[in-house]
Amino acid sequence: MNDDDRITAYEIINRIASDVGTKWGVFLQLNFPPGQASISSCSLGHRNLTMLVVRDRKKFANVSESEVRHGFDPLNPTAIDSAGFGYEGFRVRLSNGRIDCLPGGVHLWCEITPQVLEVLDWIFANAYGMKHA
């Protein structure tokens, strides 16, 4: 696959992600970090994913940053560091990658496992105010 094909594939995949995100009221984007090995089609959507609910929010709503941090305890993080963008948020380092958790959304740089989904369900319901439909 040449670079033009990769760019076209990236555009198509993110157009689909955008349509899905719009349906659920979030901005959804698949990320393709530079320098990573080629991605197989069966792994798309299982890591390197951005989900934004309120893009410019600077503080978590309805819960404290500390409560959100503790929401990650079931994942046994190796470290939790401040995001350092001048507002609440942090980077959760895991054995298989990391999750950037910001007041407006999350960036998943790890394999999305059932355990990660459970934590995300809690965060989306409690920190972002999105309930299951």
Helix tally equals 3
Strand composition percent: 15-25%
Class from helix and strand fractions: alpha+beta
* Rg, Cα atoms, Å: 15 Å
Query: How helical, in percent, are the residues?
Result: 25-40%
Q: Could you give the order of strands across the largest sheet?
A: 1-2-6-5-4-3
User: Major sheet, described briefly?
Assistant: 6 strands, antiparallel
Cα distance, first to last residue?
A: 40 Å
Q: What's the rounded overall pLDDT mean?
A: 84
Order of helices and strands: HEEHEEEEH
Total beta strand runs: 6
Low-confidence regions: none
Globally, the shape reads globular
Outline the structure in words.
- It is a single chain.
- With 133 residues, the chain is α+β, with helices and mostly antiparallel strands.
- 32% of the residues lie in helices and 22% in strands.
- The protein contains three helices and six strands, in the order αββαββββα.
- A six-stranded antiparallel sheet has the order 1-2-6-5-4-3.
- A hairpin with a 2-residue loop joins strand 4 and strand 5.
- The longest helix has 22 residues, at 3-24.
Write the topology of this structure.
Elements: H1 3-24, E1 27-30, E2 49-52, H2 65-71, E3 79-82, E4 90-94, E5 97-102, E6 105-110, H3 114-126
